[in-house]
Amino acid sequence: MDDDVFSATVLEKLPLADSVWRLLHFTMTDDWLEDLWSRKRGRCYEQELKFSTLAHLIADALLEHGGSGHQAFERAQDAAILPVSITSAYEKLGNLPLPVSETLLAEGTRRMSAVLPEVPAVDPLPKCWADSEVFGADGKAIKHVKRLLKPSRGLQAGILGARASVGLDLRTGLAVAMVGHLDGEAGFFQQPGQRARPKAPQMARQIKVVPRAPEHGRLQAGRVWQREEQRAARP
Q: Given its phi and psi angles, is residue 169 left (phi above 0), alpha (psi -120 to 50 degrees) or beta?
């Protein structure tokens, strides 16, 4: 059976999968991705591999290949979609400016929200939070970084790489903001002797631009956001 025919047959029986694909294609249109790239690329540039193509290939890797970028790139080469080598595609991905990734998440979520219900069918939060927008935030750092630089080769301690923190709307379950930092030790708040810029103000600024839910007076309500380390510190 032809792959396209097989895929169409499966999608007829899986309306949820079809809706996910349609929502993804609505959100990640080529014209929006190209506009995002032109605004946030900094000093980076494009030649044969466009940012929109790379973004779609990463989406394919996550949804079709269990997160394997290599499988997605190989399949794209077979289909004449990837115009460069797999190594070049990885280099392009590794050199993407951080503002591109942060804006992709923030603006992509807002684009997706335009076609989602304004009021969730079920509110997962307690009634005491009915008049507030509630957000959570947590971050992860890249661990077990290889000691490629000569000064780090003799170190016995583990080395942390970059860190990313994501803000989550706890009512809708949507990720609404992301803040990245090259310093894996960077925290939400400035610590004594810490040179890295804290991420809390950056995350707060991004969450402020998230559209408010219109139902039952939330336009006048405040916003609350909770961090994982703050919950863990409470008795």
A: beta
| Residue 170: alpha-carbon gap to chain centroid | 16
- What is the enclosing helix (H) or strand (E) of 92? helix 86-94
pTM of the entire predicted model: 0.74
Q: What is the chain's percent helix, strand, coil content, to nearest 5? A: 45, 10, 40
Of the candidates 19, 7, 17, 107, the one whose C-alpha atom is nearest the C-alpha of residue 63 is 17
Token pair in block for residue 17: 């999968």
Contact (Cβ atoms closer than 8 angstroms) between residue 76 and residue 57? yes
| Ranges of the chain with pLDDT below 50 | 1, 189-190, 192, 195-196, 215-221, 229-235
- As a whole number of angstroms, the distance between CA 217 and CA 212 comes to 10
Find the length of the chain.
235
Residue 45 class from Cβ within 10 Å (0-12 exposed, 13-18 middle, 19+ buried)? Answer: exposed
